[in-house]
């Protein structure tokens, strides 16, 4: 048995615009703080990684067009070893390609995820 939950602290400076369960294992919420809007994406991948990645790409493109920032978190059931890193989208985009991990194993889903 499992599930997903998304919540927020009760502070007036953050408004929840919407929270939506898009499909099994994928949910999104839109938060507003001042003039900034954030799309928060929660994901659990137990099958069909490709379909979930396509959904993420769509949300990221929509959010970019709308001027929203995006935070993605969840469980991708992917082993990436030391591949990947993060993207910092501040004043200038920085891609940091180093990642430290005790788990050095990489599986097919992990390779696809960091492409």
From TrEMBL:
Residues 81-115 are annotated as: Disordered. InterPro entries: Endo/exonu/phosph_ase_sf. Gene3D superfamilies: Endonuclease/exonuclease/phosphatase (3.60.10.10). Residues 89-115 have a biased composition (Basic and acidic residues). This is Endonuclease/exonuclease/phosphatase domain-containing protein.
